[in-house]
Automatic annotation (TrEMBL):
InterPro entries: CARBOXYPEPT_ZN_1, Peptidase_M14. It comes from Amnimonas aquatica. Residues 5-347 form the Peptidase M14 domain. One of its GO terms (molecular function) is metallocarboxypeptidase activity. It comes from the Bacteria. Gene3D superfamilies: Zn peptidases. The keyword Hydrolase applies. One of its GO terms (biological process) is proteolysis. Keywords: Carboxypeptidase, Hydrolase, Protease. Belongs to the peptidase M14 family. This is Zinc carboxypeptidase.
Length: 347
């Protein structure tokens, strides 16, 4: 098979090198293949840890948008860290007996090959889920069905899901939703000066039913890591509302299932405007709008989120000790969360 895609896809090359190095320890699996410009590109999924559904599961996703390469780089660096630790870190082995970790670092390899936000069919995967916003969305940013030639194209309503989205849904349903407690973090870049951790909804300015749980998780992180105050955690709709958010859809699906399993999805939106402010020459490069271009800044970003990624595992493992229990406790957290996020001009 031609290897051109590897040369043009440094992140895919790095991931496949890591998979080769780790052997069966990552349980690598191609969950779908994407045809793009004469190439067939794999979407890789790696799974570590316990397969029991009574243990918590955490999913790490990146590369949904082909121009936001730093998200994939951050996850590949983290996977490299885990692979290395597998050879000596007994605490990691203990942890993996009690949690499941799922990685899809490059959801949209065709977008990576072409250097486009959308997939090869011109669809913005993060506007593509079959869910409409409750409010007017900014056009076309919130998602449009007019043309794949314009950005933020949702695809046609009548069409099947794009293969990348179908594979992502399958991975989340089989490997996260099946667990009694699971979380996901999906790494993006390109909005704002701060690193934001968004939670649902993107489709609505109204709170999600698990607002108390999200608020408590935020408080736990802030108490545990008070010097990691560079994150701004908030509902996505505070920044803008959109149609078709994959995580809105997957979150609502667990509510509809009504089986008591809890799934909390987050999006890490790395604030790329800060990198541009510090290095305005980045504006001359299309990828510079979304990625740190200077080596020292890239290295800083690659190590910046390790604590958060580890925290999600520890918090998932110990969820019984911090999840609000009982209606009084949940009500108190709900109140605090509404005051924080849903008071000014929100419904
Ligand atoms: Zn993105």
């Amino acid at each position: 098979m031609a290897v051109r895609h590897l040369a043009d896809n440094p992140e895919l090359l790095a991931l496949e090198r890591l998979i080769e190095q780790a052997g069966s320890r990552l349980c690598p699996e191609v969950v779908t293949r994407i045809d793009c410009d004469g190439e067939t590109l794999p979407v890789w999924c790696m799974t570590l840890g316990s397969r029991r559904t009574d243990v918590p599961a955490i999913g790490y996703f990146g590369g949904v948008h082909g121009v936001e390469r730093i998200g994939s780089q951050v996850l590949i660096a983290y996977l490299g860290n885990l692979v290395e630790r597998l050879s000596w870190d007994v605490t990691l082995h203990d942890l993996l007996e009690r949690v499941r970790l799922v990685f899809v670092p490059i959801v949209n390899p065709g977008g990576f090959l072409r250097g486009t936000r959308a997939n090869p069919a011109g669809v913005d995967l993060m506007r593509h889920a079959p869910v409409d916003a409750e409010h007017r969305v900014p056009w076309p940013l919130g998602g449009q069905r007019l043309s794949p030639r314009l950005p933020w194209y949702r695809g046609r309503a009548s069409e099947q899901l794009q293969p990348e989205a179908e594979a992502l849904f399958r991975v989340v349903r089989e490997r996260l939703h099946s667990h009694r407690f699971s979380m996901a973090i999906d790494c993006h870049s390109g909005f704002g000066f701060r690193d934001r951790i968004w939670f649902p909804y993107a489709r609505s300015r109204n709170p999600l039913p698990h607002l108390p749980e999200v608020w408590t998780l935020r408080a736990l992180f802030q108490r545990t890591y008070p010097h990691h105050d560079f994150y701004l955690m908030e509902p996505q709709a505070l920044s803008y509302t959109t149609h078709g958010d994959l995580w809105d859809y997957l979150y609502d699906e667990t509510l509809a299932a009504g089986n008591g399993n809890l799934f909390l999805p987050f999006t890490l939106e790395m604030g790329s405007w800060l990198w541009m402010k510090k290095n305005p020459r980045q504006l001359l490069d299309p990828l510079g709008l979304f990625n740190p271009m200077l080596p020292h800044r890239q290295a800083r970003v690659l190590r910046r989120h390790l604590t958060l990624f580890d925290f999600l595992q520890q918090a998932a493992l110990a969820s019984e000790s911090w999840l609000p229990r009982g209606s009084a406790s949940r009500e108190m957290c709900e109140q605090a969360a509404r005051e924080l996020w849903y008071t000014q001009g929100q419904t």
